[in-house]
Amino acid sequence: MPEAVQHPPWYVEPNEGESISHYFGRFRRHEAVCVSSPGTLSKAAGIGPVLARWEKFRFNPFPSEKELEAIAKLIGLDVDRIAQMLPPKGEKMKMEPIRLCAACYGEKSYHRLEWQFQSTVGCNSHKLRLLSECPFCKERFAIPALWENGECKKCHAPFRSMAKRQKPY
């Protein structure tokens, strides 16, 4: 019988297709983690201030194998699993505005990496255009690392309630 994988108490399982920004925000808010900023986490891994850039979808230069190994070791994740939260080679990122499919978010509440691809027009699952601002108050969405409650930072409308305001594509 295979041995069960032992994870550290601060282990946070990534979601399928989750963006690195959203994942590290969830990781820092985990009860067993006492790190509140990306800079502190980067420093603990010995990789400089790169995590703050990654959380804003700035991958130039692209994360090195050494950086990924250092952060993977610190947080107890596989390097391959972290690499899945990064854009595939050749895929250009849209750093701003942050985009969201509220219908997807209502089903599973996390930011998908593919929403920030320049090549992504809308949600393929729901055939809806992505939102880049709150449809109620017009505030642009914060970076996913800061999505603590899954709501607009200005008017506090839940992301899932925005689905009815998404237009088809």
Automatic annotation (TrEMBL):
InterPro entries: TniQ. Pfam families: TniQ. Residues 10-130 form the TniQ domain. This is TniQ. It comes from Nostoc flagelliforme CCNUN1.
